[in-house]
Amino acid sequence: MGDTGCAGGQVCQNGKCAPGCSVAHLDCGDAGVCDVDAGVCRSCAKDDDCLDPAKPACEVQARLCVPCQPGGKGCGAGKYCEKNGKSGAWTCLDGCDGDDDCTGDGGIGGGLCCNHVCVAGASDSANCGACGKLCDGMKGCGGGVCVDTMGDVNHCGGCGKPCQVPNGTPGCAMGKCTVAK
To answer: Is the residue at 127 inside a domain?
Structure first.
């Protein structure tokens, strides 16, 4: 049996798998990184100690190489890192990690990352200008500000729908444009 027949953090010695690692078998599993000169797995102290591309981040407190850490590297675009409640292991999940993930190419103009979902903060009445900022009652969200879509002549019947009337002063009643004078 060769080293590749052993699990991570083990090498073949006298035909049996034993703790250790080698140049041919650098995989240390959750045990950290391989110290090739000593033939043993060592725990990590920083991200640079984690050589496995599938586990590029060091959870310093546990001294383990993990797939990701919140706010750290590892997950890539369109994903965020969260600790699994059952196993306690870090894992990458689909969704945004911050507002920067919700802007630019593929993002939303005025995008906010609310509970790992991109929302249009400029127009979302449940997240108007900020996550969780709710526009009450008959108000809508326009430009990240709650507006009265039932009585505001600049947002009558919907955000950004101004009332215009020839030869008169516009008004808005119950979401419909009227002539005020």
So the answer is: yes
Distance separating alpha carbons of residues 59 and 7, to the nearest angstrom? 22
Residue 167 domain boundaries: 149-181
Considering the domain architecture, whether residues 101 and 123 belong to the same structural domain is answered as yes
Cα separations in angstroms, 139 against 22, 109, 129, 151, 156: 66, 21, 14, 9, 10
Q: What is the value of pTM for the model shown? A: 0.61
The DSSP call for residue 139 is E
User: What are residue 41's phi and psi, to 5 degrees?
Assistant: -85, 135
* 93 backbone dihedrals φ, ψ, rounded to 5°: -125, 155
**Cβ proximity of 124 and 133 under 8 Å:** no
Q: 129 φ, ψ to 5°?
A: 85, -15
- Please name which of 115, 85, 83 lies closest in space to residue 101, comparing C-alpha atoms: 115
Q: How far is CA 132 from the centre of its chain?
A: 17
Q: How many domains does the chain have?
A: 2
| Residue 100 DSSP one-character state | G
Residue 112 is assigned to a structural domain of this protein: yes
Where does the pLDDT of residue 14 fall: very low under 50, low under 70, confident under 90, or very high at 90 and above?
confident
Q: CA 79, 66, 52, 117: dihedral to nearest 10 degrees?
A: 0
Q: Which two tokens stand for residue 95?
A: 């969704």
